[in-house]
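Bump. Still looking for HTH-type transcriptional regulatory protein TyrR structure tokens.
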Amino acid sequence: MKSMSSANRFRDLMMAFSGSYDGLVLCDANGVLINLNESYRRITEVSDQDVQAAMGRPMHHLVADGIVTPSVTVEVLRQKKPVTLVQRIKTGKQVLVTGNPIFDGRGRIQAVVTNVRNPDILRLTQQPSEAPDSGHDPYMNSPRLVAESPEMIRVLDVSRRIASSELPVLLLGESGTGKDLVARFIHGHGPRSGGPFIPVNCAAINEQLFEAELFGYQGGAFTGASRQGKQGLVKLAHGGTLFLDEVAEMPMAAQAKLLRFLQDMAYYPVGATSLHQVDVRVICATNQNLADTVAKGRFREDLYYRMAGMPIFVPSLRDRKEDVSPLARHFLTNAAAGGASGKALSRAAQRALEAFSWPGNVRQLENTMQRLHAIVQNHEITADDICRWIDGSGFPESAAGFANSSYQQVKTRWDRDTLKQALETHGGIRAAARALKVAPSTVLRKKRKYGL
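Sorry for the wait, here they are.
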């Protein structure tokens, strides 16, 4: 039998591509969108206008524009292996996507083919026990945990790997970075995921009652105690995870008892003489430098080493700029979940958000997006809206004085400072254009306009 001609093979491939019931997306070795089939449009409900605008563009540009979040193609090119994850489409749909690299004879990626499955199938896969393993899955089991930056992807990779172990985990990082979500992520991917997740804010518990709250007490153990006694938070976490947040605020007396508990997984309730055994995974978190706290005598050194079996640093939002826009869009989507009309971010608005330092981290960004969703009347949130409704102290020092300027002055000043910073950081017009995700001609025109 004669081998099939190249033309016939190509024709048959295109017929299979077009006739597939699942959505199919084809990108080249640079992540540029080449083609997608009719099933993709049906499943995602994207408009013809959006499809036409997306053709020939790199996938990371489509992520920046909020068309898809995250991009499985980008991950396949980074990891050089098949990747499965949950993807959110601009239309609001969530789909299950699997990207497969196509290699040439030298082991180089020639293209990435992505299979996109119907949301009805996705709903059947959202139980934790059936969730696909994706390396970093920002939506499965942790609907608010969005990770696009290399820094957060590493955090989730480490968290996933240690989730099945018995190691105590210590989460470090500034307030508002999402340490509680990382703790829930570890719980959700571990053997106790079916058990309770009990969060405890150590700074919010009265110092005199700390041991009783944590370990419970026998009836009549102290003045004011209930005659029936009370189960402690440790007991409530049996079979699951105990998350001790702000652990540096724990009183010294309670620290000694926590140390004994971590060593034996057993404790005495206040006033009790019998030992209670529990099966609990303990995750601790703090926004303080515990080594410094130990040196000052405010925290037990032996407890520090005991609970820091696996320290994980959760970076601040200013150190993972790639997460700002995806998080902002995610919070806007959540704000619209109650029936309110959805809102989008202009490209300039996304750059404004990324220029902000976010001293309150993810928590501040979430509050800001909720405020903008409620206040901005237009469908699209602009850079002017960002500058108007955000605390200007978080912008670079060169942007000081925004509050006393008109909106146009604010926009112009921010535009100039952003361009100047990009040129200084990346050292050339083309490199700056790539970083800002605009055409080199735009950078050149504005460079001349601002005399840079």
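The chain is about 40% helix and 15% strand.

Edit: fixed formatting.
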